[in-house]
Amino acid sequence: xxxxxxxxxxxxxxxxxxxxxxxxxxxxxxxxxxxxxxxxxxxxxxxxxxxxxxxxxxxxxxxxxxxxxxxxxxxxxxxxxxxxxxxxxxxxxxxxxxxxxxxxxxxxxxxxxxxxxxxxxxxxxxxxxxxxxxxxxxxxxxxxxxxxxxxxxxxxxxxxxxxxxxxxxxxxxxxxxxxxxxxxxxxxxxxxxxxxxxxxxxxxxxxxxxxxxxxxxxxxxxxxxxxxxxxxxxxxxxxxxxxxxxxxxxxxxxxxxxxxxxxxxxxxxxxxxxxxxxxxxxxxxxxxxxxxxxxxxxxxxxxxxxxxxxxxxxxxxxxxxxxxxxxxxxxxxxxxxxxxxxxxxxxxxxxxxxxxxxxxxxxxxxxxxxxxxxxxxxxxxxxxxxxxxxxxxxxxxxxxxxxxxxxxxxxxxxxxxxxxxxxxxxxxxxxxxxxxxxxxxxxxxxxxxxxxxxxxxxxxxxxxxxxxxxxxxxxxxxxxx
Length: 481
Known about the structure:
By secondary structure, the chain is of the alpha/beta class. The chain contains 13 helices and 20 strands. Helices cover 33% and strands 15% of the residues.
């Protein structure tokens, strides 16, 4: 609706007073106040949180292994298990007393003092969609769904923390977590598309890689776009009285973000990996996973707070993911093939987080939707390819295993160099410190300063829905060693 010019000054003064009051309320009660706030109150507290300096605001980088990484060959080796369980690889010692990792991860072993391993996360989602929805969004259903009913933690954090005036989006997916085949495994659901990620696709290691629509170099084109947006905003201001569902607000947010990305030199520089010294790029690895992780580090330094990077595609082997059924891959050949890329990219990211002074602010998590079956299975290959014999070749595999999985945590001011939880001698299930996806989500939210126990968001029906149900942050990670 058109503002009355005579009341404009007093209304602006009133808005300033309300913002100051909201900020005082935020500082007094913290993010836990969201649980009892109206939607306008939520927006006010979002604005207050956004005023924190970038260097004070925590962030998270999730490295996602789509398909389910085998805990037995990586973070939870079982050398004493019978031959039909343990596989061909041996454990190796690390810098941390009592921590052993699979021999495929020698770089991990060299920097084990910079991370902690959780070996006892367990849930009931046996399919890729269900497992992903449980880990990423806390949906407790065992069944696979075509799309999520709960928003993932990345979208929730973005919704609560995003800063409208920021040049860069606050949630970016570098090879974003989106789908598993035809199933959507992540998304903002009832929070609306504005809470979802800005997606970067493609291989950043390629010489011709470029993020489209970022940082126009033509000054005249930039000015023209800015003028067009300004004119549209003035015209749309006349239709504010029709904004019953917040559609105009969402349009403004998308448009503002698009304009910033198109016209900002800062955004262009943040995505430009050629600005990194070649020796740094080589340390991460001049391959897709290495450069994805390097871009994640560049983005978090530029102020982005929620970043995901999915390690999938050709570097995984024949089927492009970590789903190491015998029909897809020879599980051990596949792991041996992809491990050097994985080991290099992940450890370079972790080292940089510490070397560049980001280790208090930025939490790095390496995870997948579940582990793999401890008992090795055998089946005929469905086709030849990297790490797979020709069709009909009998080869080993490991199948879905939600009862036990491992995760890595680094940075975030956590206590490092430790192993949390334990599975039985075969790796079939937790025997010590079982952790649920709800606990995992609580841990992420706690790092981001979100009161997970008292924050409720309205679903599609308007019903207040908790962002975590019956979960508690993993206490062993709190505080540095």
